[in-house]
């Protein structure tokens, strides 16, 4: 019951629950319609003072035992939580009243979970503390104590193909090659990958990081490509709050805006034709259809301009779209151009040209092989992170040792701040947090490594990236 009806009735045992800070004593919300609350005077009802008196009455009503309970540790993250103010004052009064401090003797910290080892030790029952005979809790305690020296596989064996196998969307194929582990979790298992919630930064951006600068540059570039007046674009950026104030922001805007304007000027020649979208409907060898739409098509060329640097993901996405177009409309000489930043501090614009996709293999055959890789990736997570895979394939394409550049891309360099792909949430879920390069690579299965790369990562990387690298040409603008 509440403390109100029986607060002064003596009992052998009085037990009070829920004395957490923020819960007890009660808080009184001021109501705008309460005329008395606008001008409070002494003697009016005060819930907090009333609860303190109720606690004192309940304490004095205990004749043999007094049990006061509050949540001292957050059950989710283990963070310490203080008792309520009246309960803390009671503990202080006991320490001052007794001959020696008694706080440590009367405070009993109970386990928060049934599989806590303190509930399952042989002396737990003899000592009068919490105890349990639950065999499931015992198994949980033993599993928690196991150091797990060797990582366990995410799947015991590859899954069977989904029945029936439906038509394939081009967007799903693109999502797979952008991140095979995340695509397997979402498309096959219907599992959302964990991620950090977006939290707005309330501090003044004195020194914006690379991501914040990219957001400003991408926004400027998009508006310039759309034909918006340059002065209007630059005038609109400072009020958004993404740049430092004053002259610091003006210098940063000149730097970012100059890069965006360079990209616009460098691509004027092949942006003369209007951009459009081309539908894709390709019949695959197994009878399924690849359906979708390819955007940013100008004439017979896919043209994509980005403020980002020329990352492997953008190049591979353009390659997949190019194969889809060439397979759906084989009579037209399709090609692709991806334009982005190139180099370090004073980055220049660079263009990656792909195509034509013909010779030595037909586009339909190359597309069918990528779909076969996709089907394998829907049975199990494939060791094919996009940046690490490109690092391996590029080194192998130049007949160099591919293990070291791929390892640096996966695990990160000690003296480099670039993102290590083993921290990706999806790959961390299927391979373990910050997994090693050897765990990613794995031993190839029979018939999986015709190019003799020596591991599954290399086998799939060369299979996906080698046709692209044979048809890729990069030049600065």
Folded structure, characterized:
With 477 residues, the protein is α/β, with parallel strands linked by helices. Helices cover 40% and strands 13% of the residues. It contains 17 helices and nine strands. Strands 3, 4, 5, 6, 7, 8 and 9 form a seven-stranded mixed beta sheet that branches. Strands 1-2 form a two-stranded parallel ribbon. A hairpin with a 5-residue loop joins β7 and β8.
Short description:
By secondary structure, the protein is an alpha/beta fold. Helix content is 40%, strand content 13%.
Give the helix/strand layout.
Blueprint: E1 11-16, H1 47-61, E2 62-68, H2 85-97, H3 103-106, H4 122-126, H5 135-145, E3 168-169, H6 170-178, H7 180-188, H8 210-225, H9 230-236, H10 246-266, E4 276-283, E5 289-298, E6 301-309, H11 312-328, E7 335-342, E8 348-354, H12 363-377, H13 386-397, H14 403-411, H15 425-431, H16 437-441, H17 456-470, E9 472-476
Parallel strand pairs: 1-2, 3-5, 6-7
Antiparallel strand pairs: 4-5, 5-6, 7-8, 8-9
Helix pairs in contact: 6-7, 6-11, 8-10, 11-12, 12-17, 13-14, 13-17
């Amino acid at each position: 019951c509440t403390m109100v009806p029986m607060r002064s009735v003596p009992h052998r045992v009085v037990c009070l629950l829920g004395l957490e800070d923020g819960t007890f004593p009660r808080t009184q919300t001021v109501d705008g319609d309460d005329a008395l609350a606008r001008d409070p005077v002494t003697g009016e009802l005060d819930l907090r003072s009333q609860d303190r008196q109720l606690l004192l009455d309940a304490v004095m009503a205990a004749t043999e035992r007094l049990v006061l309970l509050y949540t001292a540790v957050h059950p989710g993250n283990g963070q310490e939580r203080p008792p309520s103010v009246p309960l803390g004052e009671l503990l202080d009064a006991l320490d001052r009243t007794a001959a020696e401090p008694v706080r440590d003797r009367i405070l009993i910290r109970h386990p928060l979970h049934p599989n806590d080892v303190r509930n399952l030790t042989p002396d737990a029952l003899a000592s009068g503390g919490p105890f349990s005979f639950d065999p499931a809790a015992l198994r949980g305690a033993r599993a928690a104590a196991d150091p797990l020296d060797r990582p366990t596989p995410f799947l015991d064996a590859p899954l069977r193909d989904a029945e029936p196998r439906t038509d394939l969307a081009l967007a799903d194929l693109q999502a797979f090659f952008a991140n095979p582990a995340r695509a397997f979790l979402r498309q096959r298992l219907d599992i959302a990958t964990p991620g950090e919630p977006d939290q707005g930064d309330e501090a003044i951006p004195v020194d914006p990081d690379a991501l914040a600068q990219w957001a400003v540059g991408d926004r400027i570039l998009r508006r310039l490509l759309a034909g918006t007046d340059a002065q209007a674009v630059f005038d609109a950026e400072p009020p958004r709050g993404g740049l430092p104030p004053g002259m610091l922001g003006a210098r940063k805007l000149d730097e970012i805006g100059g890069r965006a304007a360079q990209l616009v000027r460098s691509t004027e020649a092949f942006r003369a034709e209007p951009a459009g979208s081309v539908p894709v409907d390709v019949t695959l060898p197994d009878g399924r259809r690849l359906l979708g739409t390819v955007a940013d098509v100008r004439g017979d060329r896919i043209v994509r301009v980005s403020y980002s640097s020329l990352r492997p993901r953008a190049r591979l996405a353009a390659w997949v779209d190019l194969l889809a177009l060439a397979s759906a409309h084989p009579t037209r000489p399709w090609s692709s151009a991806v334009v982005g930043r190139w180099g370090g501090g004073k980055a220049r614009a660079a263009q990656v040209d792909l195509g034509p996709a013909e010779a030595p293999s037909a586009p339909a055959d190359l597309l069918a092989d990528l779909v076969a890789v996709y089907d394998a990736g829907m049975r199990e997570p494939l060791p094919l992170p996009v940046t690490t895979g490109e690092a391996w394939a590029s080194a192998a394409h130049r007949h160099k040792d591919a293990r070291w550049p791929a390892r640096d891309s996966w695990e990160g360099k000690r003296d480099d701040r670039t993102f290590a792909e083993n921290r990706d949430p999806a790959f961390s879920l299927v391979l373990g947090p910050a997994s090693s390069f050897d765990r990613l690579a794995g031993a190839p299965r029979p018939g999986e490594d015709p190019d003799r790369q020596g591991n599954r990562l290399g086998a799939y990387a060369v299979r996906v990236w080698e046709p692209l690298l044979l048809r890729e040409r990069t030049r600065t603008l």
